[in-house]
């Protein structure tokens, strides 16, 4: 399937190298763990997550008195599944209305992901409204409009440079008037001006809380898998300016840096909820730890 296909390069970077090492080692020793550590660190799993994985592996090998290097693979799979299961991956859109605020820097696939999410929700019978609250760039509004038309949902927009919170306010009034189920808000991702971004998001959240106190709320941070460790840096900065309830990890297809999923789960402690596996409207999947690890080791 699409996930297996997309993870091919990541598989080359992680699993196939691990297989080679396990096959070439006759016994389990320090050197074997050093090799495994090297593979994980150099394939974007991140130092912190890698050290944790290796330490746990050593413990499990000892506890279970394992001597065959090939058995280490099953332990590693279990370890990864455990590490990647850090909370529900379901979008919190229980209440009607619900609000999803989408944050992330430009170019990571924010607009595309909003379109894909809107489409999925619509297919589930939900009435969706989009708010073009990235008013900083006219192109952002235009792009979102293309997706709104493609999916067939209403878009609330103002002109470039207008107050993002005012767009959200209008969108909420539209949601109330039409009894819509989900409002998805795009936002500007200008991380280089942290103070402005924080103020802008705070104002948006304040309006949502005031106008829709009963709504289910979700703040999705969109990260680009192809940026590897940079994605972690971005996420840490975003966590300083905004609450984040879930990650959308885009462009997992065709990158060798898929190990970043493990780093994100381990270092940020925010669940990856959705993964982008292509540019098309259906190329967004709910993240599932077991499926992901199985695809990686298939
Ligand atoms: P934004 O600036 O964050 O809103 O980014 P866009 O949504 O405009 O996406 C930037 C580029 O990334 C576009 O060419 C998208 O088609 C592409 N893109 C987004 N998500 C994915 C994905 O999951 N896989 C691939 N291969 N491309 C993606």
TrEMBL record:
Say which domain of life the source belongs to: Bacteria
Q: Where is the SRP54-type proteins GTP-binding domain?
A: 271-284
The answer to whether UniProt assigns keyword Ligase to this entry is no
- GO-annotated biological processes: SRP-dependent cotranslational protein targeting to membrane
Topology with respect to the bilayer: Peripheral membrane protein
Tell me which residues bind GTP. 104-111, 186-190, 250-253
Q: Name one GO cellular component term.
A: cytoplasm
* TM segment ranges: none
- Reaction(s) the record says it catalyses: GTP + H2O = GDP + phosphate + H(+)
Keywords, sorted A to Z? Cell membrane, Cytoplasm, GTP-binding, Hydrolase, Membrane, Nucleotide-binding, Receptor
What is its subcellular localisation?
Cell membrane; Cytoplasm
What this chain does, per the record?
Involved in targeting and insertion of nascent membrane proteins into the cytoplasmic membrane. Acts as a receptor for the complex formed by the signal recognition particle (SRP) and the ribosome-nascent chain (RNC).
Which PANTHER family does UniProt cross-reference here? SIGNAL RECOGNITION PARTICLE RECEPTOR SUBUNIT ALPHA
Query: What quaternary structure, including any partners, is listed in this protein's UniProt entry?
Result: Part of the signal recognition particle protein translocation system, which is composed of SRP and FtsY.
Spell out the protein name for this chain. Answer: Signal recognition particle receptor FtsY
């Amino acid at each position: 399937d699409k996930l297996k296909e997309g993870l091919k390069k990541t598989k080359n970077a992680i699993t196939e190298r691990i297989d080679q090492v396990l096959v070439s080692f006759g016994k389990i020793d320090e050197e074997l763990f050093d090799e495994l550590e090297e593979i994980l660190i150099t394939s974007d799993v991140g130092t912190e997550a890698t050290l944790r994985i290796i330490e746990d592996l050593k413990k499990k090998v000892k506890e279970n008195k394992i001597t065959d290097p090939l058995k280490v693979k099953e332990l590693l799979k279990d370890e990864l599944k455990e590490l990647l299961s850090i909370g529900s991956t379901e979008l919190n859109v229980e209440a009607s209305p619900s609000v999803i605020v989408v944050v992330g820097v430009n170019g990571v696939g924010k607009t595309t992901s909003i379109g894909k999410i809107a489409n999925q929700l619509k297919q589930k019978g939900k009435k969706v409204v989009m708010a073009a609250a990235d008013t900083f760039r006219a192109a952002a509004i235009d792009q979102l409009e293309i997706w709104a038309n493609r999916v067939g949902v209403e878009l609330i927009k103002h002109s470039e440079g207008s107050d993002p919170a005012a767009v959200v306010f209008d969108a909420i009034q539209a949601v109330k008037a039409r009894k819509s189920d989900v409002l998805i808000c795009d936002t500007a991702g200008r991380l280089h001006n942290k103070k402005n971004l924080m103020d802008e998001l705070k104002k948006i959240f304040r309006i949502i809380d005031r106008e829709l106190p009963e709504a289910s709320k979700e703040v999705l941070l969109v990260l680009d898998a192809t940026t590897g460790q940079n994605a972690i840096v971005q996420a840490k900065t975003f966590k300083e300016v905004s609450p984040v309830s879930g990650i959308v990890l885009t462009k997992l297809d065709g990158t060798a840096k898929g190990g970043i999923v493990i780093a994100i789960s381990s270092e940020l402690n925010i669940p990856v909820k959705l993964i982008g596996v292509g540019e098309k409207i259906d190329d967004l999947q709910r993240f599932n730890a077991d499926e992901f690890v199985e695809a990686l080791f298939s």
